[in-house]
Amino acid sequence: MCIDFCQSNPYPRAMPAAQAQWIAGLDELFGGATRCVDDLHNAMTGEQARDIAAVFQTLSHPARLHLVALLRTAPEGQASAAELAMRAGWSRSTVHRHLRALTAAGLVHRSASGAQTCYRVDAARLESVLALLGALAAISR
User: Fold this and answer.
1) Contact by Cβ (8 Å): 126, 107
2) What's the rounded Cα separation, in Å, for the pair 26 and 44?
3) Per-position pLDDT tens, the chain of length 141
4) Rounded distance, CA 65 to CA 88, Å?
5) Cys-Cys with 58: which of 74, 92, 105, 133 at CB 3.0–4.6 Å?
6) Helices 92-104 and 46-59, interaxial angle, to 10°?
């Protein structure tokens, strides 16, 4: 059995014997590490992986997670920055800074509603990221 985790690596390197032994143990334990690696490689493109990483980087700040939760539970699924600041107990500038990051990652959309700007979570975007993660979790179970 030959297992090469570096097949898709543009800079192939020799695998140390200890690592190969560990991988062989995984192969035995999970019934085919090679299949698992191939499935993982095919589960998402490099672009999708970068996209998910950017989303996770954005959501890695607790304030942004809190804002997403506030928006998801807001009446009509949307709220202004002033409403979010009041509900979170933060300054408007703090809320705006985090909303900018969420908007840049495509997780939140802005829309004009009368004289104010309202923010709404892009549920489809959030679900697509979760679906890709689900595909990774389901590989070779």
Assistant:
1) yes
2) 22
3) 333 444 444 434 444 555 555 555 545 544 444 444 445 556 678 887 888 889 999 999 999 999 999 999 999 999 999 999 999 999 999 999 999 999 999 999 999 877 889 999 999 998 888 887 787 777 755
4) 12
5) 105
6) 170
**pTM (whole model) above 0.70:** no
- The pair of structure tokens assigned to 128 is 């697509």
The structure tokens 């923010």 sit at: 119
Give the C-alpha distances (Å, rounded to integers) separating 28 from 14, 16, 34, 44, 132.
21, 19, 10, 25, 27
Would you say how long the chain is, in residues? 141
